[in-house]
Amino acid sequence: MFVKHLVSNFVPSMKLSSLSTPNGLQIGDILKQARIFSSPDVLEYSKLTNDSNPLHFDSECARNAGFEDRLVPGMLVASLFPRIIASHFPGAVYVSQSLQFKLPVYIGEEIIGEVQAINIREIKKKHIVKFSTKCFKYGNQLVLDGEAMAILPSLAVEQEQSMG
């Protein structure tokens, strides 16, 4: 089993580990990426999605709703999963994603996104992979849990591709 860390521009302290499995992705393999979501990230997400929920922009509103401060939109946090998969498997087609939001994510918190291969099937020279998808804060606090399916053109794990 290998664990690969994808490093976001926002968390330069994490290191990229080397691939230890020459045969490509196998059941149990884990790919991770760390990310800190900023106020500008939330603003850009809002512009793209027209999500103007005041919980993301107004600290007082968020506190009145029972939160410590402004929240990062859950779908923005979940965007770590397709990024992790696509950066290692260019040409991957994301088929489905289930999500369960467990804890709030606040602007400025380091979030670790993790995908783990839990099932791999080959059909017509393509690979259908089921991934367990999780996000953590403070190392072990589960904030987001789910599963994803993706069609991969190959099981060969590539180095992180620039995602712009």
From TrEMBL:
GO cellular component, one term: mitochondrion
GO BP: fatty acid biosynthetic process
InterPro entries per record: HotDog_dom_sf, MaoC-like_dom, UPF0336/Enoyl-CoA_hydratase
Coiled-coil portions: none
Highest rank taxon of the organism: Eukaryota
UniProt GO MF annotations: (3R)-hydroxyacyl-[acyl-carrier-protein] dehydratase activity
Domain MaoC-like: 38-129
One Pfam family linked to the record: MaoC_dehydratas
PANTHER family assigned: HYDROXYACYL-THIOESTER DEHYDRATASE TYPE 2, MITOCHONDRIAL, HYDROXYACYL-THIOESTER DEHYDRATASE TYPE 2, MITOCHONDRIAL-RELATED
Protein's name in the database: MaoC-like domain-containing protein
Species whose genome carries this gene: Nyssa sinensis
